[in-house]
Design a protein that fits this description.
two-stranded antiparallel sheet, RhgT-like, Rhamnogalacturonan acetylesterase, 7 strands, plasmid, five-stranded parallel beta sheet, 8 helices, alpha/beta, signal, 272 residues, Rossmann fold, SGNH_hydro
Length: 272
């Protein structure tokens, strides 16, 4: 009798194992880059990296965002700090790596992070080839623009050499390219010189307790700016039909809808 009960119990376990659906494998999307993407600590709020709202644009049951961007890092220091190798070790087939550097690579006045265009190229190639060696997908992103208008009210190009290198590597190695430099400049131009301040960490004294004396930052984003930049990135995921990502967007809401840019005249930042 006991043997019969044990047999039936084993049979039930086997039937359950074969009939229980296996959850689908999630696509992991790694973000590597600098402070314009990175997660921010509470002490610098409302400064926001565009990687932070990116997760809201995807179905989290299918896509997991792993933001490994770090403040102040160039391609050279990201490698020197051993931030890249752990990602390589963890990469699985069909994962993604979104790669956006340039801000710190071009900083000639900071020799601790500066990277020549030639070395920047070598480092991008390393990221691309090592990602592909793990059967994962690299995507190159030109550095998002800084806010810089001339006297005629025209937004200036602020990453000429490094955006050009990024574009060249993407073409040479047939890597998907998101030209965030160009797209973000166009967005700032649409907002205009004054209204584009809403996209950046621009605070008057007393606006926020983290910045009692105010802040005039034309590089780092407000919550609104980070969301707008994330929208631009996602718009290219859709336009280029990136496998496993374009088909797993979150259902549109007022917060994550990917819509054409507006002039910003009627739009207010989430936390001024």
């Amino acid at each position: 009798m006991l043997n019969k009960i044990a047999f039936l119990s084993l049979l039930l376990v086997l039937l359950t194992a074969f009939t229980t659906p296996v959850p689908p494998k999630k696509t992991k999307l790694y973000l590597i880059g600098d402070s314009t993407i990175a997660q921010k600590v509470q002490q610098v709020f409302p400064e926001t990296g565009w990687g932070m709202p990116l997760t809201t644009f995807f179905d989290t049951a299918a896509v997991v965002i792993d933001n490994r961007a770090q403040n102040g890092r160039s391609t050279r220091t990201y490698l020197a700090d051993n931030r890249w190798q752990p990602i390589v070790n963890a990469l699985q087939p069909q994962d993604y790596v979104f790669i956006q550097f340039g801000h710190n690579d071009e900083a000639e006045n900071y020799p601790d992070r500066y990277t020549s265009p030639a070395d920047y190229r070598k480092n991008l190639v390393k990221f691309v080839t090592e990602t592909r060696a793990k059967k994962a997908y690299p995507v190159l992103i030109t550095p998002v623009t800084r806010r810089k208008f001339n006297r005629q009210g025209q937004q200036q190009e602020t990453h000429v050499a490094y955006s050009a290198v990024t574009t060249e590597v993407a073409k040479a190695y047939q890597v998907p390219l998101i030209d965030l430099d160009k797209m973000s400049r166009e967005l700032l131009q649409q907002f205009g010189e004054e209204n584009s301040k809403l996209l950046f960490l621009q605070l008057a004294p007393g606006d926020h307790p983290n910045y009692p004396y105010g802040k005039q930052d034309n590089t780092h984003f407000s919550e609104l700016g980070a969301r707008k930049m994330a929208q631009l990135v996602v718009s290219q995921v859709v336009a280029q039909k990136l496998p496993l990502l374009a088909d797993h967007l979150a259902k549109p809401t007022a917060k994550n809808a990917v819509a054409p840019a507006t002039t910003g005249k009627d739009e207010q930042p989430t936390n001024p």
